[in-house]
Please model this.
Amino acid sequence: MGVRRRRWVERVETRVTRRDVGDAVPSQDLPLRRAGNLRYSGAHGVVCSRSTLAVSLFPFLGMIMFHRPAFLTLFLLPALVLVLPGCGDSDDGPAPCPGNLVRNAAGQCVSPPPQTGGPGTGVGTGAVGCDASLADTLRISEVYVRPSGANGENEFVELQGPAGARLDGYVLRSVSGAQSGQTGFSVTLSGALGSDGLFVVGGDAVDGVDQPHGCARASGCIFNDGNNMLLYGCDGEIVDGLAWGNFSGRENRAERGEPAPLPPEGMSLARCPGAPDTGDNATDFGVAEPTPGAPNAGFRDGAFCPDESGGNGSGTAPAACDEGLAATIRINEIFIRPAGTNGANEFVELTGPPGARVDGYRLVSKSGAASGQTGWDVTLRGQFSDRGLFVLGGENVEGADQDPECTRGTGCIFNDGNNMLLYGCDGETLVDGLGWGNFSGRENRSERGEPAPLPPEGRTLARCPGAVETGDNATDFDVAEPTPGRRNAGFREAEFCPDGGEPSEPSDPGTPTDTGGGTGPSDPTSDGCVIGSIPGLVINEVLVQSAGSDQENEFVELRGPVGADLTGLRLLSLSGATNPQTGLDLILDGTIGPNGLFVIGGTGVANVDQDFACTRSAGCLFQTTDGDNLLLYDCDGETLIDGVAYGTFNERINRVGLGAPAPLPARDLVIARCPGAPDTRDNATDFGVADPTPGERNSGFRDGFCAEDPTEPDPTEPDPTEPDPTEPDPGALCLVISQLIQGAGNNKVVEFHNCGTDAVDLENIRLCQVRNDDASCTLNIPLSGVLEAGGVYTTCHTSIDGDVLGGVPEAICDSLSGSVSHNGDDRYLLYYRERAGNGFDPSVEVLLDAFGDPAVRPVQSEWVGTYRRCNPAPLTDPSQWVTSAWFTEDRTTGGDFGAVGVPPLLDGCE
Model:
């Protein structure tokens, strides 16, 4: 009968399944189990439940009644009832004891009594109890979430606590963030912390494992994005927990604040040794090198753990999240479609107060699809540079402040109709957002008006430095050159950012005056850029068609003054089609070498000074028999320094405009200048077909183009050290700034007057603006044409209001320029530029006149309204400038626009 009772109990026990067990601790590790009103006592080996017994017992009784004599049934019934010792009348017994504990007669959870040696066992073993006091100090120290090798074998969890303390009875469990809460592994710990206070639970390939996790799941037992690691104490409650990744639609079961970031493959999540436990995973854990059984080290963000001291208490926790930063932090530039590997080259640049820390803010790349797939989800750490910029970028992004660790093959910033979202300290409040591309049937989650355009491959979306934020993506962002960590520049539409983007009314209260945070070509002298500062710089040689791989063997060679800094210049290759295709659009970076040459080329080119960085399979220099173009622009990205058009143009467009085009060379031949020959500004005259000689003197010309191969300039050419004698004597010029209008908005005018007796070629005149605190020219305003004696020349802002002018701007203004965007604290200088050979030497200039002293910044908005000159004497010394030499009119009426284009009164102020 004893044997039958044991078998019956075993049959009842098989009805207890894992899904019936509470989630407090893992069911397979509980010595006490419950399933509804079914109770199992590990102390007595008994299952009892009236309802369960009825289900289990009746088939057994039926079998006895139909196959055994009735007296046997009556005999067995009392015996079956006797198999229920310890069962009360209640359907719900006391809560189970966790770990290895058992419940005593008083209902308390205690360690089981030591087992003395029985027959054949020798000495007694003695069980170890669970130390509940350890819960105050035992913590998860490191988790290797995404090993680079086989997941299960290499995964590990490191615990930290008092040296030598025993962990028996504690439970470590890997749990999915899905609603089902799938378990990866669940280990009842056994053993003690080492002398260093560390204990490692890991796979077979982990060195120094103290206890194996026993997981053989092929894809790993520590789940990746949006999942949990939980440590339970003696009472079955969570002692510590770590959650990581994106929990959108998932459950953070760690109960420890915001989740830590999902680490990249090959790196772990770890605490800074000695740092205090804040109870917030995002604050307490950073990405680091895996160090199982050793002090945590190799943190990706040096600021997170500046003193990796091995747990001696001197480590520091990351800075707290600055909620006040939300008012000024903004998305400034985004590289959506790199030409190379997406994830490694993508970046997002933020702008904010220089030196401010971004810790705790969250940047999320979100698809516009209904599912809202997540690419990036990065908790920020670090601080803004001195320029007020912070860059998150892949491993190929130079100067990135934080790596978002994108391992998605197609990139983590989605392309057409998608979003980049910046959240505040709570991880939920949207601080800024950018949507781009076509959102037909998709969701613009940026909440910032209309989306910006989808940029072409190799270009970014960027704000104009200093422009006022409108809250509308389509207005605030345009296509530009990638400039991570530097001032945004190289905008596709010149008018989008014509003058560096300084607001027309910076004195308006509450209006931000600089969202760029740095300096760049839109404000040239801020980066040392002066238009025309490299005299004699020309395109010297071009390999258009190579016999091998095009993009690897193409090159462009420039020639100019030795040591000249080319930084910020732009090299652009455009097809001759009506809708031009762009092959190369590159911002130069470097100086001309001792031989006067600078080579931009592919990986197969010798003597290269700057890489093309071209991945276009058909090459980046167009090579059809039809005509195409190569253009070299100054540091403003708009002023043409030189260019070469080649091939047959017919119905195509020669965008260079320097005479007739050069011939299209055969494969592996170049078009090149004859050494020492003058620049005639005619491509057909200046370029012949020759052998490729990158970084060396041009040679091997065909058809006797350069038979003499001169090494010196043609002696018949003018001496470049002397001014052209046909140019006027600057001492005889009388040219003065005659009127300046600062109307509201973009209603800005600068006018000057020829007070001399001879006509003036304005190609020889440079009008420069000195902005804010600058002590020299900030930018130059292009002039053209001839100004007759006694005449006036008027240049107006591109967006000046024709109604205010009283007529169509193009009919009243001699030229329109976005650079005419002065404010009340800007000044102007008017120069005559002397010739140097066939160009101008900006280092030899004569100051003709000035409006304001460039060395003294006026009070903000001092020049407001209309200023008309009443003293004809030119100011060769700007310090002579005085307000009394001008008529003035208040701007309340919009300025005296009726006098635009009218010669000024130069007979004294009355």
Observations:
- The chain has a mean pLDDT of 74.
- DSSP finds eleven helices and 46 strands in the chain.
